[in-house]
Amino acid sequence: MAAAPGRPLPLITEQNEFYWTSGADGTLRIQECTSCTALIHPPQPVCRYCRGRTMGVRAVSGHATLIGFTVSHRFSLPGLPAPYVVAQVALEEDPRVRLTTNAVECEPDELALGMRMEVVFEEAGDVWLPLFRPTAEQGEPAALPEDEVGPGSVLCHIPPMVTRQKFEDRAALTGIGASRLGRRLMVPPLSLTVEACEAAVADAGLTLDDIDGLATYPGAGAYGGFAEGGVTALESALGIRPTWYNGGGETFGPGGSLIAAMLAVAGGLARHVLCFRTLWEASYGELVRQGRITVPASDAGWLKPFGAISAAHTLAQNAQRHFHRYGTTRETLGWIALNQRANAALNPTAIYRDPLTMDDYLQARPITTPFGLYDCDVPCDGAVAVVVSAVETARDLAKPPVLVEAVGTRITERIEWDQSTLTHEPQVLGQSAHLWTRTTLRPEDVDVAQLYDGFTFNCLSWIEALGFCGIGEGKDFLDGGKNIARDGVLPLNTHGGQLSHGRTHGMGLVHEAIVQLRGEGGDRQVSGVRVAVVSTGGLAPSGVLLLRTDT
Predict the structure, then answer these.
(1) CA dihedral sign, ordered 198, 202, 207, 212
(2) Which among 155, 269, 289, 358 is least surrounded, fewest beta carbons within 10 Å?
(3) Helix, strand, coil proportions of the chain in percent (round to 5)?
(4) How far apart are CA 422 and CA 427, in angstroms?
(5) Euclidean distance between the first and the last CA atom of the chain, given in angstroms as a whole number
(6) Exposed e or buried b for every residue in 71-92, given b needs 16+ CB within 10 A?
(7) What is the pTM assigned to this prediction?
(8) E strands, 39-167, in order
């Protein structure tokens, strides 16, 4: 059958042509390592299992197990109007190979995890899209495949530190600043960056002439509303002339700039590094809608041809599988959304401060099942900046320094979104395990947690991965919201998080952790805060910080 026109299509290359054109004869084909016979997807020049370099192509049966699906209500594409079903299937020949696809020739309520599926191809120009439908005969649903790296896996083992000396001990966080925050400020994003940076430098009791390092995420590039132009843009505006600088997306999540800065000051390359993060997604989206900005065409990759254009489409399926395996419910995620809104009500800078009830949460319009509107963070315009200083200089500055107890950065899970961990947000397990190998503190020593909440499910994943409850025990831990309230055992996202304060992409969480450790939270201040944990990112590679007071 032929696809409707306009659907985003992949760029056909020599490496992937066999896959995207295999439907011409109705046969699905996957790359194979001829050394160990493992199937490899997406195609690679080397086998990740045996490291063999002789690769071939194998024709497979086209039968697979349905391991995830989400009904997309919010998003529409040319040729793919909402609602449509984004699905993930695991091939019967090798369940480690998962394909993102569309479930077709069935109603969404007829689908169930573990169903047997079969491939049908849809022709779209030079591409044959592999779609999947339920087979006519269905037996007992199959179990979800095991993750390549799961909790307790030998691959999650973190080697001990080479030395007891930690670079974290040589760095301190000495200044914080934030710009105006709003939904559609319609101002140049670099102006927000400058506001936040000047505020952070002043907060530290420094001047711009004292700054000798700059760091940011994701740096310069075609990021649309996701960045302001990087280090080069800020240096051009302020003329700082740093001795050290760093910017890029391949780092430890949005907070990776801080960890890079800590290494710089610990290594003597700088004394005071100004780290910054700017978003202007709300204004950028409005300018696109007005036709004042044109989004350039790009390779649709392995996900977008099937309408999986948002992180929500991947994480919704992770959440679905957590529900399936552990009995988690939408109400479980709702307690996170309600907690963040209650905290935002006490924060004058938060975007959404009106009361939110569980009925409001459950009845909100669907985005992509099981996520509704309040499971998703708030696109906004704003910037956050943090000064990282050499610890030798920190105690002479304007505010008591916040010290860095440990960081967690390790990648153990698959990088490709649809090949990675099934029941949790990918890129939280290795980072969390790594953190606790670099400190004698334990989860019970943490007084506040500022955990990445691009979606409610992200928070649940970090809570379990960091050991605040067992894997799969999030439902009981979150029930009623008492444990994560400001007077609970783990006060969570005390400024309102990204769900209500606004999507400041992790750096707002760092800002709030420092506010709480300084005791500057006002009405939302948690008493006696000495230790805070902050996670930034997930799904893409991420990082986690354990911060503490100086006393």
Answers:
(1) negative
(2) 289
(3) 30, 25, 45
(4) 11
(5) 68
(6) bbbbbebeebeeebbbbbbbbb
(7) 0.96
(8) 39-40, 55-60, 63-72, 84-91, 98-102, 116-124, 127-134
